[in-house]
Amino acid sequence: MTVLRPGHEPATSGRTGARHLLRTRLEALDPPVRRDVVRLLTLLALLPLVLLLARGVVRLPHAFDPLALYGLAVLAANICLLHLAYSRYDDPALGPLRRRPRHADAFPALLAQPRVSFLLAVRNERAHVEACVRSMAAVDYPGLQLIVVDDASDDGTPEVLERLAEELPLTLIRLEKNLGKKGALVRACAVADGDVLLFTDSDCVVAPDAVRHCVTALVRHPELGAVSGHCRALNADAGLLARVQDIWYEGQFRVSKAAEAAFSLVTCVSGPLAAFRREAVWNYLPAWAEDRFLGAPFRFATDRQLTGYVLGQAWHGRALKKRHADSPFVREHDYPELRWGAGYTRSARVWTRVPSRFSSFLHQQIRWKKSFIRNLFFTGRFMWRRGPAAAVLYYGHALWVIAAPALVLRHLLWAPLHLAGLLTLLYLAGIVLKGCVWGLAYRFDHPGDRAWRCRPLMSLLSCCILTWLLPYALLTLRRGVWSRSAA
Fold first, then answer.
1. According to the CATH classification, is domain 104-355 in 3.90.550.10?
2. What are the residue ranges spanned by the domains of the chain?
3. Exposure string (b/e) for 374-395, b if CB count within 10 Å is 16 or more?
């Protein structure tokens, strides 16, 4: 298997050479012609799925079935995602976006080389934090302000950070009381003076050019209030579970985030590498740190919720600032509420340690399900205002996640008990087909890498096991301990 990690580049193969030749010929074309050719090639690649969808649509009026309608909707959604990701996505760090708002000039421009504050919150990460901090310090961006917050660790992490602070140009903040990730990062923001606030996680390793790519994307596109990097697994060789997650991460960023980025509306600027303009988040940091849900403090939804404040402040920003008017983040400088966009740059690479044990993996997935639920009640209140395409992407995905437990119950439990095993087999075949399609997309981007065969396993895992975590997450929303252990 070929996994792109720090210091490891894939070997050249015949398929890689053919792909490189195709890319060279495309780049030689005029931009409008190149875009049309890419769209045509994408449609040709998706033609088998389009024909399968058309066949199902034609047959639907003669044998209407709500479950068949759902399957066709899922197939159509995957076709749209892949089409957007491969024919409409532009990397904002490498060139201008084709689709920009008409009022892009109304956003305040950044300096050509803005001040960047790189922030990290740590709790009990003695084994991995040194690699993370050293990668942060090694990025190729001048004048970087590096701030690390130790959130009351008790496993030897403070001693590691103090040793690093003597060697590297970093500001170390030690908290005596555990505040959680959001509270610790807000403490770091209080001493940060950057025009760009950039976050990473303590189990990550950042590419040397990652910060530069994120900043370039924000400088070139003033309408972007936030940018997400591209994440893969750092420990993909730790076993089958880690390899499956690595391939899944690639698709979640390369396809899902790229599709959202076609409209500059990425709904989750992910924690492994998240860059925010100061003006877009500064006044909302106290609301982020003190977030409450169902009458209790909510410690999850760190990256999703902060992205929601960027995208939704035009409608909810004034109320959030009024609620925290006494905070210095609001009192000292009141930034205007703008309709910021959120982007994704594939060229800004970061690697994170994924859970290698199944129990840790389930705990991580439960945290993410809780974040999804909480964020749905905030971002879902305004996403319909961001345009029909963004609304379809967001609410369509939310509906699929919410409906999944009922559909799994229907196909994997009810159907076998009622001697409808064929229905179960058809459902599982559809799940495997979806995984294969996403696996082939991975293979297109990484020719010669046979790891694409792991992607159907993730689809089956998601269907048979992870789907059931949503009801459990809903019932245990108030339970929460911040831990980044991927052991």
1. yes
2. 104-355
3. bbbebbeeebeebeebbeebbe
